[in-house]
Structures
1.
Amino acid sequence: MILSVGCTLGYQIHAPIAAFTFNVLANTDAQQRIVRETMIGTPEVPTEQIATTKGNRVLRTEVPQGPLELRYEAIIDVNRPALPAVVKADNPGRLPLSILTYTLPSRYCESDRFSPIAWELFGQTEDRAEQVRAICRWVDANLKYAPRTTDARTSAWDVWQGRQGVCRDYAHVAIALCRALSIPARYVGGYAAGLTPMDFHACFEAYLGGEWHLFDPTDGIAPDQIVVISRGRDAASAGLTTIFGKVQIGPVVVTCAPFAGVLSTTPAGSAAT
Amino acid sequence: MILSVGCTLGYQIHAPIAAFTFNVLANTDAQQRIVRETMIGTPEVPTEQIATTKGNRVLRTEVPQGPLELRYEAIIDVNRPALPAVVKADNPGRLPLSILTYTLPSRYCESDRFSPIAWELFGQTEDRAEQVRAICRWVDANLKYAPRTTDARTSAWDVWQGRQGVCRDYAHVAIALCRALSIPARYVGGYAAGLTPMDFHACFEAYLGGEWHLFDPTDGIAPDQIVVISRGRDAASAGLTTIFGKVQIGPVVVTCAPFAGVLSTTPAGSAAT
Amino acid sequence: MILSVGCTLGYQIHAPIAAFTFNVLANTDAQQRIVRETMIGTPEVPTEQIATTKGNRVLRTEVPQGPLELRYEAIIDVNRPALPAVVKADNPGRLPLSILTYTLPSRYCESDRFSPIAWELFGQTEDRAEQVRAICRWVDANLKYAPRTTDARTSAWDVWQGRQGVCRDYAHVAIALCRALSIPARYVGGYAAGLTPMDFHACFEAYLGGEWHLFDPTDGIAPDQIVVISRGRDAASAGLTTIFGKVQIGPVVVTCAPFAGVLSTTPAGSAAT
Amino acid sequence: MILSVGCTLGYQIHAPIAAFTFNVLANTDAQQRIVRETMIGTPEVPTEQIATTKGNRVLRTEVPQGPLELRYEAIIDVNRPALPAVVKADNPGRLPLSILTYTLPSRYCESDRFSPIAWELFGQTEDRAEQVRAICRWVDANLKYAPRTTDARTSAWDVWQGRQGVCRDYAHVAIALCRALSIPARYVGGYAAGLTPMDFHACFEAYLGGEWHLFDPTDGIAPDQIVVISRGRDAASAGLTTIFGKVQIGPVVVTCAPFAGVLSTTPAGSAAT
């Protein structure tokens, strides 16, 4: 699936200078290849691009007082692996340590609290893939999508008790339930085609059969329709922006759709002209 | 210094499919920040962008039979640290191992062969910075710039004996001499403003006073006028392109100049239009 | 300071096989150099030793049903850097991203909840070093050391409200307060000389003046008297042991004391005899 | 195969202080698990142990004037994967970049010079595993084992022309031939059971079917009888010791044999007694 994605982020900086990190660029690997990509700041801001060990591509910049608009546009070729038919439990003694870390509790995914619940609800089958699918179905069926009922402090345990939230909260609950079953799971931020209203999306990946597989417990969007931009233990370590300094956050416009146009053979625009 | 850099690389692929890696994107860190960047392949080729441990940003792609043109353009804000006045020898027992590795001989820089030579020529001073400057002066004064006298097999030792070569050869000799004095040194490929004729350039970095510093032994171009695109032990591990498959290499156009224009506040072009 | 440290960990494995990770070996860098080290499992268990990106040295092994005793002994030469007199706030736009991550909230350190509290209590001075020292004094003065009042689910926020706990809880509160002030802070597990009763210890490091510095908010043990064995965002990612399978945990004996003996010139014992 | 390995290295330091790195500890991963390990310096020298990205475990230390003896002993459980029956050529467009780097020429393995030779000698079969085996047979049949005919400057191309050398030279030629066929290959230093006379050994690994496999072109020692202690592009980046300062090298004793004894349940010795 070829997707056209992008965002425009507006800010008003009130301090003499503010520092930003942006994690909105498409990650790139064999599953997400870049056809075209443009990132433009107005006024022009020199940015440092940092690749993290998790594969995130973080922009970092410092901007003086005044307005800032960051605009990102990309065309991404997405090809995800199919989920194996049946997945046996991994031997934790053989999992790479960097994977094993995603079975541990984190700020928003207190998986240690979910253990008895998870085994009772999802322990009937031994197929790990089916367990993750059952978790997604349960989350979709039992949580109520309710914007503005949760905030940046809300954790999976809070959502479990309140039974409502947004995509971020759905993802946290699903991750906590996976980890409670010792299935490595991590938080994913991304662009998702077909979202209404269009916005950044949160979903998650589970490690099944030796590979990470993407799941969307909120809207059931297919993995090929999602472009990953951040990965981490939860929203605390996979945030899209970090701001240091007094800054007023302005409008956010996000786009993501199947690429329908014809790829021009003449560059549509260039940095130097 | 704000530089406008870029290249256009043409190929004709004769095999059903060919695999490429391109290492022509500006590295990015606090010394090289990106104002704008565009990379466009014609026909459209999805690429995977890989960050190496040395900071190189490698594009990898597979392309079917036919023509390929890769065009890269960027505006880069370059700020290099000043060289300290006097630099004492590092205690090798305290250097990070990842730095110490750049004191070892490599394919094109047989520093083990240069030890007596280097100490005789440059051992009078104990100031490590002055030693590197003296090496640059010596290389510039004693080698003859002579295109097509050397090739992809020519090593520093070959150049030492033949006393001629191109920027790549100058860099290899300078690196071998630095390492022979136990000064960590690494090969740098880049864009350089003021080069005649314009082309990709090769120079090197020496580790002095706890930091890497850039030197150009061929043309004496100032560090702020150079945009680094590849780093490695020598040209063998810092090559700009690797091609797998039957491919005819076409015209290469390289640009690098101080950015003179006005940075537009309206994006000059965008991926999705 | 030369310290003699060690532990003996006993287990009874009830499953046919159990997998373990042990993070009890001394980390090793310029601040912690190893004079001698022995790790012996009874019955003999082949272990894989894994170095993590944070510098932890993790042992991983699989053990069949029956008893297991792991015994570790080491002599470590500890040399910590002195804290600078006055430390200015870091520019977050310049901090390495791998450091910046330690300003974010984590499972047990919900620093996002502590912000107003931290600035009110510790915002009078601008000296970051003094802020951390004040946090340690506050934690020591206001928390009551009370074993068995907290457990593996207790977070910094819980401790803040309950005002009691053990070294792990003290560390979590101190870390959360540091991060609330945007001071990078991380959890440290280790051996500590002078502890009564002797056990593994938890303390923390704060990033001040370009370097990590060790603080013990519980017992005020000097940094040179502590041997670091694990580092992480909090106890969730810096745990000392992870066990997969049905295992009964037996006696734990920990030792840590200034090395008083004479280092023998004849090896005290050897693997092959 | 459980192997008992070790070495005793003697030095006389003539400078006030000398810096050393030692790369003689067994690497450890799922294929090489450690049952016991002891490293003792006389006089006692605190060492820093550094894990490199290639999996080497490097000791670094500084030692004052006088004698130094380093003694290492370990019991290692070695389990190597079997070579697949037939191995197809890798698609270089899909190989991880960190593997692809081992197809490039290096200081002692000028694979670029060997291309026509390698294809002529070993290009009849398309089975990559058979190509590597044929290279080993060719090297064994056509090189003469001749100590002291080569030295630290001798490269694969030199050996190709002289047709004699030691294990290090055999390995370099085999690696250069593999790389000339685009098979990733890397240099391995290690302990090898059955060597006469006993010494450190050099062999190599080829990347076949998605995994590194060990080959010994000199003595045909089975992979399970070899304990890897260093990996690198060639002897330049996989050296066993590096010495900075005026040091006289004394006797080297190396041991490696199948472990025949009974593993005692009482620790044979301990660091603290």
2.
Amino acid sequence: MNDKIHSGNPDQAAVREVLERWLAAARQSDLDGIFSCYADDIVAYDAVLALRFVGAEAYRKHWKACIEMCPGPVLFQMGELKVEASADVAFAFYLLRCGAVDDKGVEQASWMRVTVCLKKRAAGWRVVHEHFSAPFDPQTNKALFDLAP
Amino acid sequence: MNDKIHSGNPDQAAVREVLERWLAAARQSDLDGIFSCYADDIVAYDAVLALRFVGAEAYRKHWKACIEMCPGPVLFQMGELKVEASADVAFAFYLLRCGAVDDKGVEQASWMRVTVCLKKRAAGWRVVHEHFSAPFDPQTNKALFDLAP
């Protein structure tokens, strides 16, 4: 229950390894790499278009469409990461600066929020739920892309 | 609460009890009740205005402002709840239909997404992180309030 005890535990290290592997794959738009981190029965709340995606097949179609919408070098930068893990249940949350370099070479990026929930399955730790979002302005209902931590 | 299946796992039952207590308090705009579910060091990603709120004091100010923005009977309805708990780390996620009854008696509501992360502390289970959001349309950047599960 003490955070310091958990910070040294091997489960927390294993969960961080999954997050790092996911981040490296996401930067390369590597769908196989990204989905090697996910459980087949993942339930995803993504930042755009739908309330939720149920199952890896539906979520992969969405990821593919997002990658096709934003081709070129992808920027993903983690901030304020917190990880908690027990023997078979874990979660992590962080701010994610994401964006891309436009055709004039200018970086277009904004901060999003990410929560990731994992379970240890027979094959190892897998993401069973993730939640990406941008907050919105209740006056305009527009997503807020100019916030910084 | 729709999904009220209490499994044999006592930790999962205890986490569901916190969620039910939170829901009852949120429906009553009962700030003390809501915050009895939260850890002092909660990090919250709310649906509106800010990237994140760090600590119960900052988050309570935000909750108070939101309640003042939407006075009157509050609608909160959970759907598709999933809970996972181990001895001291747990998470839950669900869709939340939230809104209010306007001054003509008409219900104005939309579905949001919620992820809740908990730790078992000396005083019992506490929410250490929560994430509320609505997805947005990448063409208009507007939050999507007309989606239904």
